[in-house]
Records
---
Amino acid sequence: MSQRRPVGARDLTLAWDLLEGKPTLRISGWDANDLSTMEELDAGEFSRRLAVVTTEAAEAAPDLADNDQLPRVAGSFRIAGDSVFFVPRFPFVEGMSYSLLLYGTPSSGHARVPEVRNIRRPSREVPPTARVEAIYPDVSSVPVNLLKIYVQFSESMSEGRAERSIRVYREDTGEPLEGVFVPLDPELWDPERKRLTLLLDPARIKHGLVPNMEAGYPLIEGVPFRLVIGSEFRNAAGSPMLSCAERVYQVGPEVSERLIPNRWQLTVPPVGSRDPLLVEFDRPLDYALLQRSLWIEGPQGNPVAGGARSGNGESSWTFAPDLPWTEGPYRLVVAPELEDLAGNSPVRVFDRDITQSESASALADGVSLSFHCSGRRQDSGRGQ
Amino acid sequence: MVDQANALEHLGLTIGSPAIKSVGPLAFGPEGVLFIGDNVGASIFAVDVADTAGSGQAASLDLENLDGSLAGYLGCGRDDVQIRDMAVHPDSHNVYLSVMRGAGDSAIPVIVRLDGRGTISDVSLENVAFSETAIEDAADEDDPREVSRVKLRTVTITDMSYVNGLLMVAGTSNEEFSSTFRRIPFPFTGDTSSNSLEIFHVSHGKYETAAPIRAFVPYQGNNSILASYTCTPVVQFSVGSFKPGELAHGKTVAELGAHNRPLDLISYERGEDEFLLVANDRHPLIKIACVDIDQQGALTVPDQSLDSSPADPVTPPVGVPRQLLPQEGVRRMANLDGERVLMLQEDQEGNIHLHTYTVDQL
């Protein structure tokens, strides 16, 4: 045995393996005597012999000879059979290269400068599948004080890429429009990470604030803009987008008026039918809030079960009851948080001028519109 | 650990493995309980980090390329490390970071602990004493008004602070624009909605809006709050004005100019005086004396004459006097021990460094 040359890092084989079902880095090719010697070492001594670091960190480290200062990957070593296993505290990353640093074996003696062996974790090629399904508002023209845009993806997405993936350009000149959105930190996603909310910079929308006075609205009235959702987004599995998406909007005048449901047109279905109630708004409303801010209460004041849908361009809403309409008074209830495209709600304008009494008028608990189902179809727009 | 749990029973903590899906804002509460904001899971966790090993003596930490070191520890690339927040344990003075490793399905939430020598470890989140509260009351599945409506609303916590039995939480909704500011009693009782506040601020005495709060800090013995908004105003509130179910009105005391976002706020004392630091994404670090906030009336018209250091002629700040500090790229701050302040600073290349400054240096 003493005739053999000492085993060094060059004799070792690195491989990805499982130990007790957990992904590990298997280090094999050891001299049996070395291994039994190493088995006796405590964790501190062991880590003076062996270290696993990312290759990125190994290359950035000022001095690998300084074993105490190594940016070690969190984890522990285990000896099983003829191999040493490195069990990472956190899973290995696909496509990432890791380095084993060997400061000599028991038979070769301690080495000040380690021998380095690298191994790359395989990566899977995942075909792109994600795409943008819709961009809201679903209208051709938005007010210059537009507050929100929603981007609906076809599947769950990874966070952290919105900032670099979303661009806005002037449609007339092609120049980029800067500072349109609030920095996307944190990004605002729905629970499934399929819908992203973009907030146009409210500091530039709010009257009287310095950014509004200095830089003006993020959009320019009369100048259409193109929103581009770049392919830099990744889905939750990390694969790229099928394609980028874009939408062009015309930019119309500011809207700074409370929502006034009395102006809405109601088409009331006849008693005995399950035809939908149709509500037509006087302006497009916020897509997300529209999905949950309207409901119907029946003659006894109870919410009516049924199916609600927002119409094209978020300019209308229909509600088909599960059971036929009955004779009697109904109410369309409007939640106070419902907003139009500029953040105006039934209870307040987006930013109210407190020196103007008319804009200061605010209702406490939202509003409702009454309608009466009778024997024939009717149009009405009454409120209370 | 079981003894620890018994010791923390009065805080409503039980032993288990909190199902934390993501880590975001951090704040320490009583007896070394760490509050962790989980925006993916829409919850706040209170975790006993069982940190009794520290010497209690705070150490000045200066760690270059902290994000690179964290990447090494977590076995990932630097791009896969997102440091979300920083807090200091009130007794051990160890530094805690909320870190997300990776993104999407493979993202892993990690609470990193840095001891006084800068050694990296992470807090086990298995078999620990913890409790949990939902950010919002769960929707009633049986409510017929919810028919045909998919639950798409979320609240993203942007900052938290614990004061006298109340965890104060600022958040941003992905649907409504208005402010979400909650006071959640701790130990958690499940009661959050009754303490939700709608906070308005007035700009220049004329316009009033609700808006999400990005960061805030209690000061003046927790009687006041200074809050920064997603829309740049810095606004002062009296804690006494927070009445559940009522509107709270704040006083806009400063505006920091266009294309800038306040990122973090802390308070510290030097001698008899209390100061606030405001970290910004574009503008320099700003120092404000609390006494000046008291003396500052609500902004009525943009007034540059009040500014003690007109630095940037393109975006003249208005309001309370302030001083610009030289620390660059400050992303998060924490008061280490009353004498020193920690800052996470990002350099031009995007690398993150941790530095310690004494209050005399500020």
Note: Residues 32-39 of chain A form the longest helix (8 residues).
---
Amino acid sequence: MTAVSRPTRAALYLYGALILVVLYLPLVAVGFASVSKARYLSFPVKRYTGGWMAEAVTSPTVHQIVLTSLKIAVTVTVISVILGFFGALAFARFQWRFRGLFQKAILLPIFFPQTVLGLALLIWFSAIGVTPSWKTAVVAHLVWISPITTLIIAIRAYGFDPALEEAARDMGASTLTVMREVTLPLLMPGIVSAGLFAFLLSWGNFPLSLFTSGVDATLPKWLYSRMVSGFTPQIPALGVMSVAGSTVLVLAGLILVRWLRRRT
Amino acid sequence: MERLERRMGLLAALPIGLLLMVSFIMPMVVIAGFAIMPQKVFELAHMPDFSSFAVIWEQGYYKSLLRSLGLAFLTTAILFVVCWPLAYGMAKVFGRFTLVITVLVVLLLFVSENIRLFGWNLTLMKGGLIEGHLRAWTGLSFETPLYTWPAIVFGMCYVYFPFMLFPLAQGIALVPDDARLAAMDMGAGPWRILFEIEMPLAAPGIVVGCLLTFVLSAGAVAEAKLLGGRSVVVLTDDVESAFTYAQNWPLGSALSLMLIVIVALIALVPISRIDLDAIMGRRK
């Protein structure tokens, strides 16, 4: 019993639907703009074309930029998941002296303005004589994303029973075997969602890449530089494709996580 | 066994701890160091003279700090009011629809914020998605709301919406239905229940949501650039131009430091009181 009257319930549903519409409105606009034939966009769109998409797909500059973004996102995913896996054990599972402090320290980078973090890292890199490139962008993304993967895996780590590990150890399994045969499979759904988050957040990140990737432009950074210099139909075309790619990945990830949950 | 756990904990925390030490703590130390250096130097090997803070005062940079904090406060307040009913629905009413909302909102987080803001540009501009269709269908027209400060606040509300919504929903889920029903039985009106039962019991979620929204929007930059069209200069704009065009690291560092200190002062007290084990669902 929630004691919420029927009209209130209906109003809440309506409100939720309305908010979803508003949330997706800008993407609808980007979608229309990507297939509008006119060089100077104005709504309502009268003639449609797939030409801008085709142009974006075949452009060598775009290939280069997508490759850089992918390189960064894949590296960040692999490293942040490994860091997050161990971090989550320290966060949720082991009872050790500085656990409380560690839990709070992990939150700091997430609660931190990203623009300021990006600029601070830029200054730090030049102070120690490192030229910014896609590799420094990886470091910058890691500072923000590994705490997030840690939290996601930690949620899963809270949910499992430490007795399972103890049982394995009592039966003579070494620490390494316990980790490989018990801990890792149990945390797998968390690890997959963390990897998904890491990849997508790195792929879409703008403020950190803007300052730390040097001459290696990522997709959001490149799109931004085109946006501030005026409208070209390539911007929405690439934007739509990037969003479509992320959506497919999210759906694939959701199915994988469900399948893993069912297995354990 | 106990000793093993202790050592394992430290060991497991080490990799991410090292990462944050080298690429989070150290940069902050360098920023703090540069903040007290003389103007326009590029090494820390100078006599500290605190001149940046004098410049901030004399040239009115503190105004953009106040402006950023004001916009962030407004964004937080608006988002709280907008998100509360939806979060309430998600926690107590919706059932399956909650999952739909969650997936759709999280999906949006993965779309680069500048693509989404660019979309608002196309939606709200003269001849854009809304005005263009309105004119074609009814002949009516309106001036674009873009390039004003309310457009910036709107953009920040839009981008940071999930950071308010999810913590609020989590917080409201903590409110037991019995408490509401008991208050109702005793004749409390809906507003009284809201202010005296629901909000106090949902406080952890409210604190986390407001904090996240405030901190993130105080450091926001893309909204002002893409929707504000440089009509409003926010603090992060000043920080960026000090570091890039002006090549004045000490001034940029001092401005960053002021933002960091203010944000830290606001965030530290609630963060230190929150029991993370309880929020994240430790087994009893």
Note: Chain A has one domain: 52-263.
